[in-house]
Design a protein that fits this description.
alpha+beta, 3-stranded antiparallel β-sheet
Amino acid sequence: MAKMTTDELLGVFEEMTVLELKEFLDAFEEHFDVTAAAPMAMAAMPAAGGAEEEEEVEQTEFDVVLTAIGDAKIAVIKEVRAITKLGLRESKELVDAYPKAILEGVDAAAADAAKKQLEGAGASAEVR
């Protein structure tokens, strides 16, 4: 029995219709007693059963997301510029693209400070 290479198998699969591929997948799962959905189900199981482990892990990195700019767009752009150290154009683009992360992966203190600065300028922000 000659073995097919991966490229040859891919060539065969390229010629199959979606229905034929579905029938093949069903036959493969039955023959080998596996399920294509098993890895996803296994990945979901620790989340449900390991709730205690999740509580032990404390979040150390936060994102500051601009959720609304309010009436003082120029003041918000100035604050974004001060927070991010970006140029005027880049800061304006960030503000115009809200909801958008202004800072990513910062500690809690920096995230809270940035949120307060943005809110002081009339914007709305969230720490995630």
